[in-house]
Write a structure and sequence with these properties.
The chain has 123 residues and is an alpha+beta fold. It has 3 helices and 4 strands; from the N terminus they run ααβββαβ. α2 runs parallel beside α3. The two termini are 22 Å apart.
């Protein structure tokens, strides 16, 4: 995590990751992508259902994990569908969250999303 000392005279910078990519976490995310694509490309597994995903890096940081949990549990946002001639409202709230491989950030996320009844999967 990139950290900044705050003097409370200006708005803090957004949290951001610094450093190298964790190869273990990268392997986990690639395995998840592979599994989702296999399910989506199969006519036998979950017919008529298409799974989607967004991958966020919390840098194994509790503050970043909590921020992402709030972001993912956000409610209704207007969304424009380019294939249609009109704007529509579609829920951007996630159906489930795959937590981190670390327990502390995952526990923090579960405390945020629990009241919204969003299930969390943990490795």
């Amino acid at each position: 995590m990139h950290t900044v000392r705050y003097n409370y005279t200006m708005e803090p910078e957004p949290l951001r990751c610094t450093g190298s990519i964790d190869s273990r976490e990268l392997r986990f995310s690639r395995a998840m992508i592979f599994a989702i694509e296999e399910i989506n490309n199969s006519s036998n597994l979950l017919p008529g259902v298409t799974l989607g995903y967004h991958i966020y890096d919390s840098c194994a940081s509790v503050p970043m994990a909590v921020r992402l949990a709030f972001q993912l549990s956000n409610g209704q946002d207007p969304e424009f569908s380019p294939g249609n001639d009109h704007n529509c409202y579609q829920s951007r709230m996630v159906m489930a969250i795959v937590g981190e491989s670390g327990s502390t950030p995952s526990i923090s996320m579960s405390r945020v999303i629990g009241p919204f009844n969003i299930p969390q999967l943990h490795k």
